[in-house]
């Protein structure tokens, strides 16, 4: 096969070469051997997109936390919560097998095991979510004890939404490049 087999991709640098009868296609994302079994190709794709998957899952969870803060703006004694995104992403990526699972939200992750007082009870755990939450320090606490600052929450919510959308755009762009590279 020659380079004409793979269409020109806008913004990508496709490269094609053969070694001992195996055709390799490179794009800006990942190298895939077209002669390898499907499971190996899927493992390479999973590895290539693992970081972005973890980042998107954490962004979605942070959006839930920030939305909860905004929803409880008028709740007396409610304490605004958030988590350190960079630290949570580093933990999710370094603990590859223990990272954030797809679709995980509140209630996922490790936590405190609950005691069973009867054999008929189901085992349970008190979970803290996929990232450890911390209380946000208020800039100007309110009289009713609520620490939600709507300006801070809206800004964090908007920034997180933009970051989430850019992550989705990044993955979509690279999947289109792969699809074009693998198209007959």
Order of helices and strands: EEEHEHEEEH
Mean pLDDT metric: 75
State the strand order across the main sheet: 1-2-3
The number of E-state strands comes to 7
Distance between the termini: 11 Å
Question: Could you please describe the fold and organization of this structure?
Answer:
- By secondary structure, this protein is of the alpha+beta class.
- It has helices at residues 38-71, 85-94, 150-182, and strands at residues 15-19, 22-26, 31-33, 81-82, 111-113, 125-127, 134-135.
- The strands form three sheets. It has a three-stranded antiparallel sheet with strand order 1-2-3. Strands 4-7 form a two-stranded antiparallel sheet.
- The longest helix is centred in the first third of the chain and has 34 residues, at 38-71.
Which helices and strands, and how do they pair?
Layout: E1 15-19, E2 22-26, E3 31-33, H1 38-71, E4 81-82, H2 85-94, E5 111-113, E6 125-127, E7 134-135, H3 150-182
Short description:
The protein is of the alpha+beta class. The protein has 3 helices and 7 strands, in the order βββαβαβββα.
């Amino acid at each position: 096969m020659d380079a004409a087999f793979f269409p020109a991709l806008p913004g990508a640098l496709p490269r094609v070469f053969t070694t001992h009868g195996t055709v390799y296609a490179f794009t800006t994302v990942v190298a895939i051997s077209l002669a390898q079994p499907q499971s190996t190709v899927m493992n390479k794709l999973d590895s290539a997109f693992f970081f972005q998957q973890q980042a998107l899952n954490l962004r979605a969870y942070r959006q839930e936390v920030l939305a909860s803060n905004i929803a409880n703006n008028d709740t007396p004694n409610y304490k605004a919560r958030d988590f350190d995104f960079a630290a949570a992403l580093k933990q999710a990526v370094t603990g590859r097998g223990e990272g954030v699972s797809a679709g995980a939200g509140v209630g996922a992750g490790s936590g405190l095991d609950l005691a069973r007082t009867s054999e008929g009870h189901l085992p349970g755990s008190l979970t803290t979510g996929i990232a450890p939450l911390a209380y946000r320090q208020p800039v100007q606490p309110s009289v009713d004890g609520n620490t939600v600052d709507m300006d801070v929450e809206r800004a964090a919510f908007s920034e997180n939404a933009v970051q989430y959308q850019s992550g989705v755009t990044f993955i979509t762009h690279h999947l289109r490049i792969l699809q074009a590279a693998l198209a007959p």
